[in-house]
């Protein structure tokens, strides 16, 4: 059999895989500071006998919000709680903070209103909704 393709030894293949991994990490890091990975959001408290508690209502500021695992809980106005998926619709980073009245992605600077709509790009689509409800003194999933 005539094979005109170059042969790759194991070392060449592994070096290529490393370069791909570095490129993938840099693509999400944006500014190279990897802030999203440095400060993971606390995971919601799972309860075996009931809904998953995302946050205490008292811990969600009016006009702000908190990030609980893969859910952002905001309170645009007193007593109104909104659940949003924390995955940025630009390139898939987890949003890093709720500050200044917006949900902010540190990867490339997208900002979302407390209802998930886009305030500033590069994201073009709103954050996906997550169903949340108040149960007692807590905001729970579902
Ligand atoms: S992933 Fe690019 S701004 Fe969020």
TrEMBL record:
InterPro entries: Rieske_2Fe-2S, Rieske_2Fe-2S_sf, Rieske_Fe-S_prot, Rieske_Fe-S_prot_C, TAT_signal
Top-level lineage group: Bacteria
Any Pfam family the entry gives: Rieske
Cofactor or coenzyme needed: [2Fe-2S] cluster
Residue span(s) of domain Rieske: 42-141
Keywords from the UniProt entry: 2Fe-2S, Disulfide bond, Iron, Iron-sulfur, Metal-binding
Job description of the protein: Iron-sulfur subunit of the cytochrome bc1 complex, an essential component of the respiratory electron transport chain required for ATP synthesis. The bc1 complex catalyzes the oxidation of menaquinol and the reduction of cytochrome c in the respiratory chain. The bc1 complex operates through a Q-cycle mechanism that couples electron transfer to generation of the proton gradient that drives ATP synthesis.
Protein name in UniProt: Cytochrome bc1 complex Rieske iron-sulfur subunit
Organism of provenance: Nocardia xishanensis
